[in-house]
Known about the structure:
The chain is α+β, with helices and mostly antiparallel strands. It has helices at residues 4-29, 39-43, 46-53, 57-68, 84-91, 117-127, 133-156, 165-182, 196-213, 216-221, 226-241, 250-256, 268-299, 301-313, 323-326, 330-342, 376-379, 408-412, 427-444, 452-457; strands at residues 71-75, 78-81, 98-99, 162-163, 352-353, 359-361, 364-366, 371-373, 445-449, 460-463, 465-468, 474-479. The protein has a single domain (77-479), classed as CATH 1.10.630.10. It has 20 helices and twelve strands. Strands 1-2-8-5-3 form a five-stranded mixed beta sheet, with helices on both faces. Strands 4-12-9 form a three-stranded antiparallel beta sheet. Helix 7 (133-156) packs parallel to helix 19 (427-444). It starts with a helix and ends in a 6-residue tail after the last strand. The relative contact order is 0.15. It comes from Lindgomyces ingoldianus.
Amino acid sequence: MPSAQIYLLAGFTALTLCLLNRLIKNYLALHHLHLPGPILAKLTSKWLLVNFARGNQMNAVHALHLKHGPVVQIGPREISFSSGKALKDIYSPMTKCMKSPIYESMGRPGVFGMRDKEQHRERRNRVAHVFAMNVLKELEPAVQAQIANLTRILGECGGRPFDVVKPMRMLALDIMVGEILLGQCFNALGAADPPYYVTVMNYVHPMFSIDREVPWLGAFLRMLPIKKYGEQQMRDSIAKFGRHSPRRNIMTKLIAGDPEKGTLPLPDQNIADEVSNFIYAAVDTTGVVMAYFLYELASNPIWQGRLREELIIAEIREKDFPYQQIQQLQVLHACMYETLRLHPGAGVGLPRITPPGGLQIDNIFVPGNMTVHTPTLTLQRDPSVFPIPDSFNPSRWLTSSNTFVASSEMQAHTFIWGGGEHNCAGQNMATMEIKIMAARVMSEFKVRVESERTHQNMRMRDHFVIAPKGGKGLLVFERVEVMKD
Ligand code: HEM
């Protein structure tokens, strides 16, 4: 009778053969294309997963493009393209690519995670009314009040170093989730402890992608309280205000539907799902971009000066910061675009799957069911389109008479809000918040970086959404002298 060692050896050999078989299959999947890329990435998707888990996917892929050019293989069945042509092939409204399965693990089935094109189109139409410009107008007073709260806190700091990272996230939470989504104030900005589900969100980001590779962890994800958050908030809203409340927030608007267009409200469960996903889509993206906006202005006093000059000429402060006018400011727009070029909320490629019959992408025929993407960070730092790409230079977006302009090449290499049918539904809301914040803060304060440490801390990492590596960024805000006639 064979001994236990022989069984063990047989088991080990079988396992090794299985693994080898898998690695060889992986290696051969795209071998005929002879693409550059790390050998490990061609053998196993764990190369990308490890980089993701370390918050290093965006930087690792960017480094590969700098080394190898516009096409690199980053997984056995995964290719990253960095040209404007590829961007069009993968993400245009007519593309045959669809969102990759990873989106199904990003929260609950809502407009963000829906992969089926028909289903997505129907849902997007059903929620579109809450993102309309007239809704923005109604929401402006609440946004203004929250940002006035920020400038009050900055004033109270009295020139002491102020960490912009956590407060900007809390501000986005107060505005996006509190005021805009739910119509109730969290007062997270300035609170000693953040609301509980912020802590949960910190874990959710990395878990999403781990769920892609280690599906049993999905079971754990489904147990997190963030999943139930939308439901509780919706029940509270209906109990407090009824189903036909004239109150101005997205929750009440979703519950009421869009009577003007005859759009019926979604079933309650779907509303809860959407609200839960909007929280994910809205808070960290807007919060981190605002933090980087202040950081870039602090690092570039010349642009701070030019922006302040524009604000003074337009008498924005005297007129109490009306968004209708802030919206028209060209230097402000250029500064915001330049911030988003360098620090796109989502800097990694947004993963898409090629159609079963394959697809020609930037002169390469990619077989069906492969993951393809265009990393936003790399695209927006293409030196042939944006010279000296790592430097903050809003003048690349401005004519000599300070009019915002983007050449067709620049447009083709800008992917701040995603594209095609999946472009960001909340981009107007985010823009309003970012611009009012910058206009109010720059009208009242001069800002500078505290020390070299700030630059180190603000270097970027990402877990789909970008974040500062050091988790904080100390800036010093000092009141601007108000000129009197
Ligand atoms: C600076 C802030 C923001 C940035 C940079 C940003 C960026 C993006 C990007 C790149 C996408 C495309 C994702 C993909 O295709 O995988 C997206 C989608 C989306 N965003 Fe935003 N976003 C921001 C703020 C917001 C806000 C405030 C909301 C409000 C709820 C929002 C709601 C959404 C939704 C619902 C989608 C999914 C759209 C769809 O697939 O139909 N975003 N966003």
